[in-house]
Amino acid sequence: MKSFKKLALTAIMVGVLAFTTACNAQETQNNNSKKVEEETKQLQGEIKIDGSSTVFPIMEAVVEEYGMEQPGVKVSVASSGTGGGFEAFIAGETDLSNASRPIKDEEKAKLEEKGIDYTELKLAFDGLTVVVNKENDWVDYLTIDELKKIWVEDGTVKKWSDIRPEWPDEEIKLFSPGTDSGTYDYFDEVVLEGKPLAEKAALSEDDNILVQGVKGEKNAIGYFGYAYYLENKNNLKVVPIDGGNGPVEPNNKTIESSEYAPLSRPLFTYVKNIAVKDKEEVYHFVKFVLENCADLSEDVGYVKLPKDEYNKQLKTLEELK
Length: 321
What we know:
The structure is a single chain. By secondary structure, the chain is of the alpha/beta class. The chain has 2 domains: 136 residues, D-Maltodextrin-Binding Protein, domain 2 (3-Layer(aba) Sandwich), CATH 3.40.190; 134 residues, D-Maltodextrin-Binding Protein, domain 2, CATH 3.40.190.10. It is 48% helix and 19% strand. It has 13 helices and 13 strands. Strands 2-1-3-13-4 form a 5-stranded mixed β-sheet. Strands 8-7-9-5-10 form a 5-stranded mixed β-sheet. Strands 6-11-12 form a 3-stranded mixed β-sheet.
């Protein structure tokens, strides 16, 4: 009898185990099906983005990839500069705002006044890159103090010989991002230190115009994001920068390690929290950005963040939703 009871109990336990396993398998299958359905669901809507011209190549690449997955979502990306992007963000004209510097206190205050909550997301690393004309055979490197001497307004016409006596007695032609640019803001912070930019500098929010300016003038010097240098490296000469520990040339390794100091910096996008909560296409797009930004940022010439950084931000996005 005991043997029979033992066999019966064993059979029951086996049955329960089989039932539980089947239920778990079905639940896993349902979860996987739901996940696939969510990932392949075709969305409709419109997303508006503005801001940094430095971040623009990253976001442009993301939008192109996203369009192949979600052709029903219209994503428009403008590049009016970091400052201009935040103005549009504050005015309620955009869902995301790209920036090549952190948001300023006065911009935070204006968003708070409007009752706009937002989340900062890091996308990649950049090295603000100083370039001269390809025919320039005298500039081997520049120190931060020399950069300051070139770019700060002091009432004089800047010549190369003013920087180092052995250099040519020729006027330096300056090409700089416009004052709405986060790249200008960063340069102002670490090089100009709040002093006025040389009045004779040619300004543009379009980095491609700066590239053409330096390319077309033997005595030119300019600066912009690393990706724009890489795209045009056959026509420009990069200038190593001595931040105090010897000259360092920007590349993926020196930018990621911050050895290229003080001109290495993170790049950002800012997203409105309400847009993530109320517009499924915004949530889905931002998720796509964070999942694909590492590869796409390197494709266009920037340096990806550590994987953990993207994962943390994906968790933050889920909490917003």
